[in-house]
Design brief:
With 140 residues, the protein is α+β, with helices and mostly antiparallel strands. Helix content is 46%, strand content 15%. Helix 2 packs across helix 3.
């Protein structure tokens, strides 16, 4: 499915967000065609209908991802949102001397599973790749 206007993308993001177990304000995470800076991602569609996920902070472009695949764009958006929600959850449920990522990764995967089993599996693979390089380290 190809969406060619930002308002339709916003509606799709809002629709998907309803699958999460808690209500979220999409506008606190992302903008659509209105770069606010402060490292808040902005979604744009260029003339050739490529979706752009752009992060700017203090006038400097920190990240720019481009895709023609709407599912990729939506994954990037909800990867960001679920990471934030999982981070807050981990902070409230931290286990002393345990690597914080154990809770964070598990919670993010759980949140993504409410939206898509594929997205959960994709994130699980990404987490496992991180853990190959930087394994969990509990404090003793």
């Amino acid at each position: 499915m190809q969406i060619s206007n930002l308002e339709e993308i916003r509606k799709k993001v809002e629709e998907i967000s309803l699958k999460l177990p808690q209500k979220i304000d999409i506008n606190s995470y992302i903008t659509f065609g209105n770069q606010e800076d402060f490292a808040k991602p902005n979604i744009e569609i260029d003339n050739s209908l490529f979706y752009n996920f752009i992060v700017v902070e203090r006038g400097q472009e920190l990240e720019k991802r481009i895709t023609i695949n709407l599912d990729d764009l939506l994954y990037w958006i909800f990867e960001l949102i679920t990471f934030d929600l999982a981070s807050k959850f981990e902070l409230q449920n931290r286990i002393e001397n345990s690597d914080f990522r154990k809770i964070l990764f598990k919670k993010q995967e759980e949140l993504l599973s409410f939206i898509s089993d594929y997205w959960k599996a994709k994130k699980l693979i990404e987490h496992n790749e991180i853990l190959k390089i930087f394994p969990f380290q509990d404090k003793k």
